[in-house]
Each structure stands twice: as C-alpha cells, then as structure tokens.
Amino acid sequence: MSAKTAMRLKIVMLAAMIAIVPVLVVGWTAYTAARGSLVREVENYNHMLMKQVQQRTDKMMETVDRAVMQHVMDDALTVLLKDGTLLSNEYELGQVKTALSAMETLIDHAEAVYLFVPEEEVLVTSDGIDSLPERTLGASLYQAMVSNKELSFWHDRLAAPADPGSYGVIQSIGYARRLPSSFSSPLGYFVVLLREQAMFDVLEDADAGQAWGMLAVSPGGNVYADDETQTFIGEHLPPEELKQWLSAKLNDGVTADSLETVGGRDWLVHARKSAESGWTYMSIVPFEELTRSIGTVRRIVTVICIALASISLVTILLLTTNLYNRVRRVIDRLQFENTVLERRIGETEPELRAYWVQRWLHEPFGSDIGGHLEGLGIELYSRRFTAVCLEADELRDCGEIEAGTRSGQLLDLLRRLNTEQVSGHYIRMGNDRIAGVLIQRTDADSATEWASENWGAALLAYVELEALATISVGIGKTKEAAADVSGSFDEAQRALRQRLVDPERKLFIYGLDRRTAEPLEYPFEQEKMIVAQLKLGDREKAAQALRDFVDTLLAAPTIDERQANQAFAMLLASILRLLFDGNSLPALSLLPYNGYDRLKSLRTVEEIIGWLEGELFVRIVDQVTRERRMREGVKDDVIRQTIAYVQHHYDRELSLGMLAELTGMPETQLSQLFKREVGLTFTDYLISFRVEKAKELLRSTEMKVADIAERMNYNNSQNFIRVFKRIAGMTPGEYRKRYHNAAGGEPEG
Questions:
Q1: Tens digits of per-residue pLDDT, 27-57?
Q2: DSSP string computed for 605-638
Q3: What is the distance between the alpha carbons of residues 747 and 745, in angstroms, rounded to a whole number?
Q4: Could you tell me the strand order of the sheet in which 472-475 lies?
Q5: I need a labelling partner for 318 at 20 to 30 A (CA). Which of 23, 106, 258, 487 fits?
Q6: Are 478 and 374 a contacting pair, CB within 8 Å?
C-alpha cells in the first residue's frame, strides 16, 4: 500500500469517527424529547379520561336523583305516611309498588328501589312488604338513614369493613332521599341501590386502556377499582401507605398531573374532583412502566451511530464522478412518489373530512380535532356554529345501495344550500340519518336564530320540490365556539325526539316553542284495559285500548318526549310483569331481544303502536291461547260463562252476587277467580265494557249522551259522564267530536 493510499484511509477513518459525535448529540436529544413528549401525551390523555369519568358518573347520579324526584313530591303519599294508612290501603300501596317497579326499569343499573317507612320499620318493595329493612339495606345504610339529617345522600356499600389505617373497598353505592315534610322526624325515604356493575361500566366505558390506570375515591375516603386494578395496587402499594397518601392528596385538593413517590416507586398521578358529587377520580401510572419502552431509543441511537459511521465511510469511498447521477435518480424517484401520494390524499379527502366532522360532533373538542379540521380547510375562528340532524324514515328499510344513492342525493342538495353567509359540512349516519354543522359568518345576534329557522324551512321546501324523501330536521342552538359543537348536536338530537309527541311537524329547533313539562297524569285505566284484553286473548280490543291509551296520553297539552318515553316504558313493564302474575308464561323469552332497548330505538308514536300491535301483542295472545288450552276446565268455563253473560246483558242491572248464583259458585270465590283470570275486578270489567259499548254508539249513532247513559243502565247521566272521562280520558261529547274530526266529518248530535 502506497503512502498516498494510507493517507486516504486515515482521512476516511477520521471522518467516520467525527461523524459519530453529532449522532450521539442528536440521539440523546431525541431520547429526552421522546421521554418528555410521552409524559405530556399521557398527561393530556389522563386529563381527558378523568373528565369523561367525572361527567359520566355525575350524569349517572343526576339521572338517579331526577328519577327519584319525580316520585318524591307526591302529596298523596305524604298524607298516607303521615296518617299511617299507606300499608293498610291496598290500592295506594299498589300504586307505590308500580312506581317502584317503574323506577327499577327506568334507572340504569338499579338493583332495587325501596320506600323505607321509619315509623313502621318496614321497606315497601316492588314485590311487597319487607319487615327486616336493616338486613335488606345493610347495617351501614340503615344507620345512615336513621342518623342522617340531610334531604338526600349517597352511601358507600363496602365489600368488607375496612381495616384500621387502611382504605375501604367500595362494592357498590346506594342513594337515599327523604320525603319532604314539616315534621322533625322523617316520614320516609326513597332508596335506590345500584348494582356493582354500575361503577365498573363507567370506568370501562371511559376506555382506561390499562388495568392499573383508574381509581374512584368517594367523599368518605373509600376506594373503587376493578379486580385487576385492586390486584395490581395490592402487589405494589402497601395499604397503609396508600391510605395516608390518598388522605393527603384529597386534603390538598390535587387536580393536576404530578410525579409522586409512594411505596418506594414513582407514579404519574392525575386527579380530578367533581364539584357536583364530591367524588375524586384518579389515574395512577407506574413511571417505570410508562418509560420502559423509551429505553429502546438508546439502543436505537447506538445502532444509528454505527450505521452512520459506516455510511460516512461508504460515502467517502463512493464520491466518484457518477455519484451525482445516482443521487439525482433517487431524488427524481422520491418526487414521483410524493406526487402519487398527494393524488391519493386528494382522493381520500372526503372520507377524512367525514371522519373528523363525526368526531367533532360526538367527542370533546381537542387540539387534534381542531388541527385536522383546519387542515381540511374548515374555518373555526370568528364563526358561529349550529349542529343539525336529519332523519328520513322511508330510507331505514331500503337496501344499502338504494339508501346510499338517495342519501347521496340529499347530501348534494344540502351542499347546494351553502352560501357565502352559511356553509355546511355533513356526514351520513346509517341509512336514514344525516348530521352536520352549519358554520355562520354573520356577527349579528338577531340574525342567528333567523338563519337557522329559515335554513330548515328552505331545506324542507327543496326536499319536497325534488321528492327525494320525507324528512324531519332537528336544529341545535347556535354556539360561539367550535368546542361547543358536540353540545349543539346533542340539542339537535333532543329537538328531533320531539317527533314522538308532535309527529305532524317536520322542523324542530331546540329551545323554540319547547314544551314546558308538567306532572303527567298517567292513564292507568287504559293500561288496565290493555292488560285485561291481552289476558283474555282479544288482540283487537287490546289494540283499541292501546289507541285509547295513546290518545289520552297525547291529549295532555304539556307532555314532552321524556314523559312519553317513560309512560310507554311503564306500559311495557306492566304488560311484561302484571300480565304473567300467577301464570307460567315465559315473559322474558317472548322476544328474541330486549324489549326496552327496542322501545328506545322507535322514534314515533306510530312506530311504537305498530311494534306493540304487530309483534308483542301477537306473541302474547298466541302464548295466552296456548296456556289456556293447556289448562281448560271448569274454572275457564265459569269465567267464559260470566263474561258472555256480561257482554249480552250489559244494559241491565248486574251484580257479582247475581252471576255467582247463575254459575253456582260462591260470590267470594267467583270474585277471586275473575280477578286472577281476567286481571280486573268484576266491577272494573263491567264499567270498562259498558264504556266500550258507549264508544260504539257515540261513533255510529246520533243518540244523545243522556240516552246512551240510560242504555248503559246509568240512572244519572252525570255519573255516566264522570265514569266515561275517568276511563277514556275525555267526556263523551269530546270523544264523539274527536272521532268525527279524525274521520273527516262533522260531529253529530
């Protein structure tokens, strides 16, 4: 080897060694930046996670409180408890049981709902009277109600008594609200016990992602965590140290991320305290687990140093006259690939826009959503935002291809409504629903609502003109910030749910002409008639009773969609529960799905009626018929004979004693058998049947109300009118007028 060659090699080696130094600097900088970035990402994620958990838990507790408050302000119940006559009044006690059963149905995760009567030392349940309240409620909750002076409170139900110096483990939670009264001692408490699954679902829905990530600490200092989290904490944190550390953090009111040392280990902690419930939600992450993956960065840096040193050596060796051409070809190839990539990005932009608009509507607004929306050309500053929701019922049952085509036409029409003042961005949500955001450029407050209302009217006019579909439109309130769009979208969906009580309208604007909900008078008489006709196996009369139920329900001028949903849920609960009392009918196996979930998915009264009449009633009547065939005998003959006599002689003077003599059965035995088989007392059945016959005469004849009352064997027409209104929800004259108006004719008589 010549001296010249040796010199060249020395220079090459020196260059390679010098090249390693900046690589090491860059590698260490990258490691530090990656570590800091990971910690910040975890902090941001924990902040969002804790906020979600807090909001979901507060909403769960608010829902329980709202459901209980609907029944607390019952003056009749207060009077009965004050007089001590509730337990001896069979009718009022039955009403309380029905209310408790409805609350158990309507409150998610409700294990049981009770009425605790301190004076009598009993619990009223949906199934009867429990004379051992301390055993049923647990000693701690029982003592809390006896000694607590607050109107309402939440109580921790511990899995086991906490050891001294350690923390209690929450198994589930309970809620108690005292009935209002002016007495020093409480008249009673409504008590709601939530299942253990309630808190678990809140944490699971929040998608914590790691078994050791989540703790919920009650105001009493007790801790809730799932089994895996408890196991992890038990293995790494001594209970005494965790108890002391939790007490210190709760007293300090920590609400931010911090790095703490507990049990000889470092933990990244984020805590958030709810001002509503007093609960504190904490995320604890072992710092060594968090940063373990970053250690890989150091190994990568080492490999990169070796690789770059080798590259430096190869680069020097390859610095020949043809190197420029090789580099040029590489640059040309990269430019070509970049052009192809830009074209593909342009082709996928509509899908990207739909994805980020959907997240904007449904999720808490964050910098990632805002950044991507701006990157897609959606302006977010100096603007106002209004969310909209459209439903086209006739597209729900279309095939995917036809629904996609017609939804595409609707989307094209919506985009044609864009102006310089108002532009919209829309997404398709299923076959029959479209959601979107209207972005308004105007600064005039008076023009904001005007623009929303007129935009909706213009859309309906265009759709009707082009005969695309029959749609309903819900519009939320206009918001000043992009971060509030998800709230506006919730309002748009709530406005659209008003279709349930106002099916003729097509445009619903949240807050505009919104009904003021007042206590609803539930149509119990119509409900009893539905149940009775189903037990008799008469689907047509059950369907007619259902129509009467709906007419009475919707006749209330202030009813809103939540009250209507609750009323239909109570009706469904009565059908599935009361209908099968004392029988062997498999109530829970009648439907291949959850009936309450199906009820929630129906959007209009006609859909609910169609489902009840066309599916549920059919299944129930078929099952009733099969059961009746299996147990046919003397008792069935007696009931059929009694009902047949009533139906043929309803216009005469009838009594239970007369029919007992006719059938040869003791009056008391006949009364009990009739109530068990029909679901109504003999008197209630006779009154209801006469009212149904009176309805037929009101619809088909011009007879005067007084003559119809006499035909129904009422000596006093005022008594007849009062009974008719109690059963049908309206007077005979109002019924006749409504029927003839619905039929398109003039009221007669």
A1: 677 767 777 777 777 777 777 877 888 788 8
A2: HHHHHHHIIIIIHHHHHHHHHHHHHHT-SHHHHH
A3: 7
A4: 422-428, 433-440, 384-391, 472-475, 507-509
A5: 23
A6: no
Separation between Cα atoms, residue 178 and residue 471, nearest integer Å: 46
Mean pLDDT of 360-371: 86
| Burial bucket for residue 465 (CB in 10 Å: 0-12, 13-18, 19+) | exposed
Closest Cα partner for 523 from 563, 566, 480, 552? 552
pLDDT at residue 464, rounded to an integer: 76
The DSSP 8-state label assigned to residue 395 in this structure reads G
With beta carbons less than 8 A apart as the criterion, state whether 80 and 87 touch.
no
Residue (of 564, 541, 548) closest to 679 by Cα position: 541
Region 449-470 average pLDDT: 74
Alpha-carbon distance of 692 to 683, in angstroms, equals: 14
Cα radius of gyration (the chain): 36
For residue 401, the one-letter residue type is I
Q: Are 514 and 558 in contact (CB under 8 A)?
A: no
Token pair in block for residue 221: 């200092």
56 within 8 A of 279, measured Cβ to Cβ = no
- Calculated CA dihedral for residues 598, 601, 605, 608, nearest 10 degrees: -20
- Please state, in angstroms and rounded to a whole number, the distance separating the CA atoms of residues 43 and 258: 9
- Give me the residue label for tokens 């019952």: 74
Between strands 384-391 and 422-428, the pairing is unpaired
pLDDT at 209 over 50: no
Q: Which residues pair with 384 in a beta bridge?
A: 440
Could you give the CA distance from residue 269 to residue 256 in angstroms, rounded to a whole number? 8
Residue 363 corresponds to which tokens in the numbers above? 């999720």
Q: Which two tokens stand for residue 499?
A: 């279709």
pTM more than 0.85:
no
- Say whether pLDDT at 360 is over 60: yes
Q: Is there a contact between 663 and 682 (Cβ–Cβ < 8 Å)?
A: no
Closest to 188 in 3D by CA, of 124, 144, 240, 249 = 124
Q: Measuring CA to CA, which residue among 225, 485, 218 is closest to residue 369?
A: 485
In the chain, the amino acid numbered 446 is S
- The string of DSSP letters for 538-603 reads -HHHHHHHHHHHHHHHHTSTT--HHHHHHHHHHHHHHHHHHTTTTS---GGGSSSS-HHHHHHH--
